[in-house]
Amino acid sequence: MLRSGDSSLRRGSRGGGPAWIVALAFAGLVLRLAVARDLANAPIFRFPLLDAAAYDRWAREIAAGDLRGDGVFHLAPLYPYLCGLVYALVPDGPLAVVLLQHLAGTGLAIVAGFLARRLGGALAGGTAALLVAAHGPFVVYENFLLPEVLGAVLLTAAVGLLVRGASMRALGTRRAAGAGFLLGLDALVRPTALLLVPALGAWILLRAPRPRARAALALLLGLALAVVPVTVRNRIVGGEWVAITASGGFNFYVGNHAGADGSYVQPEGVPFAPGDVGDPTGRAVAERARGRSLTDSEVSDYWRYRAFAFIGEEPGRAAALFLRKIALVWNRVEIPQIVDLASVRAEVPLLRLPLAGPGLLMPLALLGLAIAFPGRRERAVLTVTLLAFTLATALFFVTDRYRVQAVPLLAVMAGGTVARLADGWRQRRRRRAPLVGMLCGLALAVAAVQPHWLGLGGEVGKPWLPPMNRAVALARSGADSAAVAAAFDEAAARGPEVARVFANRGEWHREHGQLGAARADLERAVALDPGDPLAWTWLGLTQAALGDAAALKSLAQAHRLDPGYAPAALAFGQALLRANRPREALAPLFIALAAPDSAAAHDALGLAQILAGEPSAGFAHLRRAVALAPGRPVYALHLALALSDAGEVAGAAQAAAAAVAADPSYRPARVLAAELALERGDRMVARREIDSLLARYPTDGEALALKARLDSGRRSPAVRPR
Fold it and tell me: CA neighbours within 13 Å on the CB side: how many for 435?
């Protein structure tokens, strides 16, 4: 039987010479640009969420000159640093990054095509190029600030070097070192790439062209060259020897605990706020369990130990979960996390075309592990890499975005499968058995990637999460409230027992003044998940706005559930302050200062300290609040009232003027400025402020009373805090 690498399909005349590969790739570029045009104004693109928001924020900080950062890395650093470079060079940084990702996707289609052509002929090359160029999820993820495309570039380049070396008499230490360096860079994008190194190192030692030992050592040295600088940086800046990130233990637990289903499952007790990354390492839960402050490594160790405890206590269940995750890696279903591909297709007509996707790619690649590129020594590199990638991913959890990195290599393997099937078809008259065997194998592969195989249901992952994220993005974009409500309703329909959906919808209702609907949603949220401090916080704020006496109890419950959670501590402290219990408010308000320079926390703490008899410290916090948020007149007003009560009329007048300057239409600041001017006997300023008040509010009682005092020549009585 002819090998696919030697068949006539290697000739450019049968469906996939170099020109065809390039043409298919550029057709894919046209598709990408058209999709980018349609998505350019979509809220989920304009207002990044979760990881994308974190990368965007980090890149902006880097572009502004913060190259060092703070503490140990919690997200892999290479992608945000490259984005930061682009942001610094180009006015519209996010759009430039997306365009570069589209060019990278086009280049990967060409590379995959030429790699498959080298191994299996023209048809294999054309198939691989087409599968990358028209792979729907790959095209979609190129439009978002996520590192999957960069990871695909680095992994494909590393494997390409090893494939090239495997075809020669000697692998070469330079080539092995280059592959190791690229794998190290890939680990700086997705740290699970480190787990590929032992597998590829074993291949070099056992099957690669000689000299094997030196090549394996070169692979490790190349890896170290990329990773060690980040490790040293973590030690210098964060004070700990952390290889790349300190989130490995948390992510390992996400995929390995009693409630895990193979996709992303938010650990119990870890708060999640829409549009933010929440607590990315689960620090609050870990520190509460240990009863002390923990280092980043200790937090990671806490979650890792919990995951291993689950594995040790329930080995059968853990093994079944691991098999489920392996099935998810190769399954045709798309498991949403940040981006819901089905929703994106609904917004972009081009993506509704019958493009290549996991349903086509996965069975062909799976069969390719057995039949692609027979007799080619290089196929072992692809096989080892894909199997190691499967195991490395299954150790943690699976979503559609984490499979994107392997799409070019899967496409190469799928191209080899198509070439073998074509060879079998051409030889069917002489040898029918091989073709029948391959077709049976294809049928088994198609069955293996179905969502119900190995007990997988039709609904995998968190189907409610993408519409909820879309609702948040729509709300942040200022979209019509009907569109936001429709997205939240879709999330509620997909997750009728998911507390987070109702909590987030309730908070949206609260922010838009729909307090009755907010209370209903938030009461349902805390009924579904009584341990969520964020839902209790929002419920307490809603009850306070409605004048419900239960507000203080709800906020106390939020603070009790997570004493270190700054938003809950702030809301509870403010409620105690409103209840005229300033001394009790001090403790939670000091905790609220854990939020990075929160103006609201400084303001509330300053008022509480003054009312509790600590004016010196209180004034310092009030001034800090004004400095942090000079555009918020209420903070300057509080400072002015406190200074006036302390008899510092000149300072109070200055603070009141700052409040008026921040918002000339802010009535309380105008009233206070007029009263202070009368107190000082400054009739000119008093007249100006009173005239401004009456121009806006002609029948305002306080303004008319101040005018009467001014006309009578009487000074205002001393001003007291209100």
Answer: 12
| Residue ending a domain, choose from 433, 453, 473 | 453
Asked whether the predicted pLDDT for residue 258 surpasses 60, the reply is yes
How much is the pLDDT for 280?
A: 67
Question: Which positions ≥6 away from 575 have C-beta within 8 Å?
Answer: 540, 544, 551, 552, 555
Residue 652 tokens read as 């109070």
d(CA 698, CA 1): 98
> pLDDT band for position 721 (50/70/90)?
very low
Q: Is residue 317 in a domain?
A: no
The highest-confidence range among 109-113, 589-593, 710-714, by mean pLDDT, is 109-113
Among 364, 292, 280, smallest CA distance to 267 is for: 280
Question: Which structural domain, as residue segments, surrounds residue 467?
Answer: 463-562
Mean pLDDT of the 78-98 span: 91
Dist CA 137 CA 27 (whole Å): 16
How many domains, the chain? 2
127 lies in the same domain as 147: yes
Q: Are residues 503 and 437 in the same domain?
A: no
CA distances from 103 to 42, 430, 677 (A): 21, 45, 64
CB 64: neighbour CB atoms within 10 A? 11
Q: Indicate whether 169 and 190 sit together in one domain.
A: yes
Confidence band (pLDDT; 50, 70, 90) for 455?
Answer: low
253: pLDDT strictly greater than 90: yes
> Stretch 43-55: mean pLDDT, rounded?
75
- Structural domain includes residue 166: yes
3-state secondary structure 273-324: CCCCCCCCCCHHHHHHHHCCCCCHHHHHHHHHHHHHHHHHHCHHHHHHHHHH
Q: What is the CATH number of the domain that holds 491?
A: 1.25.40.10
Residues 467 and 367 in one domain: no
Structural domain ending residue among the three candidates 529, 544, 562: 562
Mean pLDDT across the stretch 524-533?
Answer: 89
Give which of 604, 261, 182 is closest to 465, Cα–Cα. Answer: 261
The CB density around residue 336, as the number of other CB atoms within 10 Å, is 25
Burial of residue 536 (CB within 10 Å: 0-12, 13-18, 19+) is buried
pLDDT at 294 over 80: yes
Over the stretch 162-203, which tens digit does the pLDDT of each residue have? Answer: 998 888 777 788 999 999 999 999 999 999 999 999 999 999
- Provide mean pLDDT across the span 451-468: 65
Distance between CA atoms of residues 254 and 601, nearest Å: 32
Mean pLDDT of 382-409: 93
Query: Long-range CB contacts (< 8 A, 24+ apart) of 437-445?
Result: 438/367, 438/371, 441/367, 441/370, 441/371, 442/363, 442/364, 442/367, 442/417, 445/362, 445/363, 445/364, 445/366, 445/367
In terms of domains, do 447 and 474 share one?
no
Q: Residue 355: which of 364, 345, 365, 363 has the closest Cα?
A: 345
Determine the pLDDT at residue 283: 81
Q: 714: number of CA atoms within 13 Å, CB side?
A: 9
227 and 80 share one domain: yes
Helix (H, G, I), strand (E, B) or coil at 42: coil
- pLDDT of amino acid 63: 92
Residues 142 and 229 placed together within one structural domain of the fold: yes
**375 in Cβ contact with 3 (< 8 Å):** yes
Is 549 within a domain? yes
- What is d(CA 397, CA 265) in angstroms, rounded to the nearest whole number? 9
Q: How many angstroms separate the CA atoms of 383 and 162, rounded? A: 12
| Alpha-carbon span 360 to 447, nearest angstrom | 12
Share of the chain above pLDDT 70, in %: 91
Helical segments of 449-565, H only? 465-476, 481-494, 499-511, 515-528, 533-545, 551-561
Three-point CA angle 243, 249, 255, nearest 5°: 130
